[in-house]
Each structure stands twice: as C-alpha cells, then as structure tokens.
Amino acid sequence: xxxxxxxxxxxxxxALGLLPSRFFDRYGxxxxxxxxxxxxxWRLQLVRxxxxxxxxxxxxxxxxxxxxxxxxxxxxxxxxxxxxxTRDYILLVRQRNPESLRALVGLAGGxxxxxxxxxxxxxxxxxxxxxxxxxxxxVLERLRQMAFPFRVVRASHRPFRDADETADPxxxxxxxxxxxxxxxxxxxxxRITLARLARLTGRSAxxxxxxxxxxxxxxxARFLAERVPLAPPDxxxxxxxxxx
Length: 244
Known about the structure:
Layout: E1 2-9, H1 11-15, E2 27-38, E3 42-51, H2 58-63, H3 65-72, E4 74-83, E5 88-96, H4 99-108, E6 112-120, E7 124-131, H5 133-145, E8 151-156, H6 171-182, H7 194-201, H8 205-227
Antiparallel strand pairs: 1-7, 1-8, 2-3, 2-6, 3-5, 4-5, 6-7
C-alpha cells in the first residue's frame, strides 16, 4: 500500500467540473475530513468549508437547500456543526461525480481512497490518496495523459501522520478516552453524547472532542504503523519518475 500527496493548481478542477467556476468568491478553504463512500457515480464525504463572510444560520441553509444543491451538484447535504469564530461549516455531503472523475474512480477500481491532508484553496490544492501502488500508478499516468498539471509532494509506504502521532496517548488522553469508552461514547449506537460527556469531565465539548481525536489519531497511527511495512522509495526517491 502507498500514500501519495499531490500539489496542483485549483483552476483545472473547475475545468474538470469538480468545482463551480466562482466557488472561492464565497469560500476561502475546503478541507476533506473523511470519505465515507466513493462510488463511480457519486461520493459521500465529511468536509470543512470556510466561508469568507459571516456564517449563515442552519435555518437559512435549510431554506436555500434546493439552490445550494443545484449550484454545487449535491444530491444532499447535512449541516453537522457551525463554527462562527473560525467561519467554518462542518458538512456531510453526497455529491455526483462528473464524467472526468468517474473515469478516474473506475480506473482506481476501488483500491484508492482520499486521505489527509486534503485541502483546497483558490490557488492551490494539496490532495492525498492511499491505496495499492499499482492502482495509484495507473491514475497518475492517466493524469499525465490528460496533461493535468501536478507535482508529487510526498510518496510513502506509510499513511500520512505527524511526527509524534505514533507516540503513546498522554495521561490525560488515556484517562478521557477510557472514560468515554466506559460511558458508551464509542458504542453503536452511542449511549452518551459528546456534550454530556464533556459536562461530566468538566470540559467544553470542542475541547474534549479535540483531546479524543488526538488520542484516536495516535492509536490508529500506531495500529497502521505496526502493520504496514516501510519500503524504500523507487530510484531517486521520486514517485513514478515525476519531477518535483
């Protein structure tokens, strides 16, 4: 398995139909948090969208739902969280794939998935993908044939992670994640909400959520690191002969 991170200009995404032509007139940044489902014809993703101006209320978004879905090619979207201080929306979106993306998803054959980091701004996109090396090679070769401009920022046989992510969870993280487990936060369905768990621990929900996510990230990174062998890069360290 391989993880590759690419950098490319944003403009070609508009030409491919992945973004509306004036999307960044209203929005400053999009971060893909998680891809829950990726099919040839559609995708279901959790995203963070940063608005340039003040956030609209949940009521306003619901009232404009039909227009929003039409403009951005969405089958559906759900507002999960508003963050007025940072002007961020956390959204669950189901979106139709344009023909160009359908072709790439079909070429990947279900053996590649988007992963972190994956951020889009008005000028630059940093996009990461994890999957079978052979499938990644096929997709990158197709991008070259399409004359799609990109450069490889990073290629590794380990999933992306921060330098200290494989360290043990801190004492605080261990205590809180254990309490969350005992109280049913990780049960399916959940037996306690994050808000109630936060009140029981004397913390705000956002602060507790960050602590738990950092602990989860370390545990998952360690799990993957122990099971994904590290192999040396090809040749001069570049991926598929692509120049940086």
